[in-house]
TrEMBL record:
Protein name: Ion-translocating oxidoreductase complex subunit D
Top EC class for this record: translocase
Subunit structure: The complex is composed of six subunits: RnfA, RnfB, RnfC, RnfD, RnfE and RnfG.
GO CC terms in record: plasma membrane
A biological process term (GO) from this entry: transmembrane transport
Keyword Signal applies: no
Modified residues (FMN phosphoryl threonine): T174
One Pfam family named in its UniProt record: NQR2_RnfD_RnfE
Subcellular localization: Cell inner membrane
Originating organism: Pseudohalioglobus lutimaris
InterPro entries named in the record: NqrB/RnfD (IPR004338), RnfD_bac (IPR011303)
Length: 342
């Protein structure tokens, strides 16, 4: 009896890049809906304009590289980058800010290194960090959430994007900003004095985090990625926050629940950290990779100059991912461990 000649890889479930990207886009919908409910139409306008620009820049890069447009545009990777960056940007960002971010993500972080599969850094996070360092005022101008201020309408959102000089928007600090700047109020008093604080993390942000958690769990169920990196990141961040939480003094760094449900924690854990190209690939490597991102997020939030640190932590660990993989390679079947038996 002859054996079946079937070569690896033996993949189950979604294997085509386009299908995986479509599932990622679907998984962002709950978070986008919640952000729209609490912050208005700004996030939708961000995504719409970023999507147009991403496809245009992708087509331009492919044309210059003499690659077939239909094949590469059909993988939806440029659109995923646009959606992730559009979500990460403050609502009601001006058109030129989004354009600079998308150009940095698509042209510099992606095609400069050879396109999808060759980029060492997460393109959306490169675009975000370029904007955060270059335009800190615009990148920290967050609109007040529903319940803490009046929400602009759709016309206002379009005006803020394409006619920013004529838009008189109202902004306020995020809960992470307030916590970093606080040096006199107890946590309970800080919570009561600022309407943008919600029940656990931040009004609007906490529900968006839960929505992104739901989308991430659905991707996990679909086996788009494994649990190792996101769970390791969240567990490490929770552990650090629990170890250094003093109960709510003026010097407090915030409770574990606050860190989990504020800022980009859940969004980063399930939609950024799990990027298969720029992250570690071995099982042990993913655990280490996620844990170090969680550690860096907490350290930068508490001791750094930026209130949210997911983008910086991810890019630092993108740089370290090949090193992690080098020292966490699984043992080849049939070979002995170093200094051990077979």
């Amino acid at each position: 009896m002859s054996l079946m000649r079937i070569t690896s890889p033996h993949a189950h479930g979604p294997s085509r890049t386009s299908r995986v990207m479509q599932q990622v886009l679907l998984a962002t919908l709950p978070g986008v809906i919640v952000l729209t409910h609490f912050f208005g139409f700004g996030t939708l306008v961000n995504i719409f304009w970023a999507g147009i620009l991403a496809v245009a820049f992708e087509a331009l890069a492919l044309k210059l590289r003499k690659r077939p447009l239909g094949f590469y545009l059909g993988d939806y990777s440029a659109l995923v980058t646009a959606v992730l960056l559009g979500i990460a940007l403050p609502p009601y960002s001006p058109w030129w800010l989004i354009a600079v971010g998308i150009a940095s993500a698509i042209l510099l972080a992606k095609h400069l290194y050879g396109g999808l599969g060759y980029n060492p850094f997460n393109p959306a996070m490169v675009g975000y960090v370029v904007l955060l360092i270059s335009f800190p005022v615009q990148m920290t101008s967050w609109a007040p959430p529903r319940g803490a201020g009046e929400l602009p309408g759709l016309i206002d959102a379009l005006q803020a994007c394409f006619l920013p000089a004529s838009f008189d928007g109202v902004t306020m600090a995020t809960p992470l900003d307030l916590l970093k700047q606080n040096d006199s109020l107890l946590m309970e008093d800080l919570w009561q004095a600022n309407p943008q604080f919600g029940r656990w993390g931040g009004l609007g942000w906490e529900w968006a985090s839960i929505a992104f958690l739901a989308g991430g769990l659905w991707l996990l169920y679909q086996r788009v990625f494994t649990w190792h990196a996101p769970l390791s990141m969240l567990a490490t961040l929770t552990l650090m926050a629990a170890l250094f939480y003093d109960g709510g003094s003026s010097a407090s760094g915030g409770s574990p629940l606050f860190h989990l449900l504020s800022g980009a924690t859940m969004f980063g854990a399930f939609f950024i950290v799990t990027d298969p190209v720029s992250s570690a690939v071995s099982v042990r490597g993913r655990l280490i990779y996620g844990a170090l991102i969680g550690l860096l997020v907490y350290l930068i939030r508490i001791f750094g100059n930026y209130p949210d640190a997911v983008a910086f932590a991810v890019l630092i660990m993108n740089l370290a991912a090949p090193f992690i993989d080098q020292y966490t390679q699984p043992r080849t079947y049939g070979h002995a461990r170093q200094g051990g038996d077979r």
